[in-house]
Design brief:
The protein is α/β, with parallel strands linked by helices. The protein has eleven helices and eight strands. Strands 3-2-1-4-5-6-7-8 form an eight-stranded mixed beta sheet, with helices on both faces. α7 crosses α8 (about 200-225) and α9 (about 235-255) packs antiparallel against α10 (about 260-275). It is elongated, with a radius of gyration of 24 Å.
């Protein structure tokens, strides 16, 4: 079903978002502070507004993708009365504090507000393989889910508008740690030596299948973290430690940087020294947390 959508901000990402709405058949109005960026979109059927006020008035759903939250307030601040009854979906990058402040400002003016992040680059916009994460009222999300799906796969995280920003940071951290671990092991297996000189492509074909096992561990350990109880299930930290020593030694032998396995070892050694050698890997959450706190078991 066609919906009227306005996109404010036509940088690389904003242009991709607007293009996805046009491709999905939505009546799309666009606006950018610098004129001329809408020409290609206009040729595809988008409507360029002469002002932000005109763009806001054109649609019940306003998608904002600007450079910073202060720019959002600069653009929309004078138009707060015009947002009453409309849905404002803010895809501008910022902090959890910014998200909550902007949600409070939008809602005080009578707007429905979702704070979101797009978990891909502009080239991935429109593909259901990539996530969009939203925080804000459940009913606002559900009312707009089908329209937002033009951009990708929309996921509602909860009612707190700060959730999208926090998830964004956490998931990027997971991506970087995973990619860096992959790079380390690709260097290790690609180096000279017995069983070495394996191409990154050949190695990754196997590593990709191994990630199914990694996902199994994550889903097994997550409830342990929530409960604050860490049964080893046959794979205790003592065994992890012995295997990590092998990884560290191999890194030295093959000329791969040993900083990452040494970091792993240091965490495990701290946990073992504290008497947790028979616990699962999930116990390390208490050593990753700076305050060292444990979870409160659920009743």
């Amino acid at each position: 079903m066609s919906t009227k959508v306005t996109v404010l901000g036509l940088g690389e990402m904003g242009t991709a978002l607007a293009g996805a709405f046009v491709a999905a058949g939505h009546r799309t109005t666009v606006w950018n502070r610098t004129r001329g960026k809408a020409d290609a979109l206009s040729a595809r059927g988008a409507l360029e507004a002469a002002s932000a006020a005109e763009a806001v008035a054109a649609s019940p759903l306003i998608v904002v993708c600007l450079s910073a939250y202060d720019v959002v307030h600069t653009v929309l601040g004078p138009l707060s009365g015009d947002l009453t009854g409309r849905t404002l979906v803010n895809l501008t990058s910022g902090s959890p504090v910014h998200a909550r402040e902007t949600a409070a400002w939008a809602e005080s003016g009578g707007a429905h507000y979702l704070d979101g992040v797009i978990m891909t680059t502009a080239s991935g916009i429109g593909s259901q393989d990539f996530l969009q994460l939203y925080g804000g009222p459940q009913d606002t999300f559900e009312d707009n889910r089908k329209t937002l799906a033009a951009m990708g796969n929309p996921i509602h995280l909860g009612t707190d508008p700060a959730l999208s920003s926090v998830y964004d940071t956490a998931l990027l951290g997971l991506m970087w740690s995973t990619l860096t671990g992959w790079l380390h092991t690709a260097a290790l297996i690609g180096a000279d030596g017995p069983g070495g000189n394996v191409t990154a492509t050949a190695y990754t074909e196997v590593a990709d299948r191994w990630l199914d096992t990694v996902r199994f561990f994550m889903t097994t350990y997550a409830p342990q973290i929530d409960a604050g109880e860490y049964p080893a299930g046959g794979f205790p930290l003592d065994l992890h430690h012995r295997t990590m020593d092998i990884l560290t030694h191999a890194s030295h032998l093959r000329g791969a940087d040993s900083g990452m396995p040494e970091l792993f070892n240091a965490l495990v050694e701290r946990a073992i020294a504290a008497g947790h050698g028979n616990d699962s890997y999930a116990r390390l959450i208490e050593f990753v947390r700076k305050d060292g706190r444990t979870a409160t078991p659920r009743p």
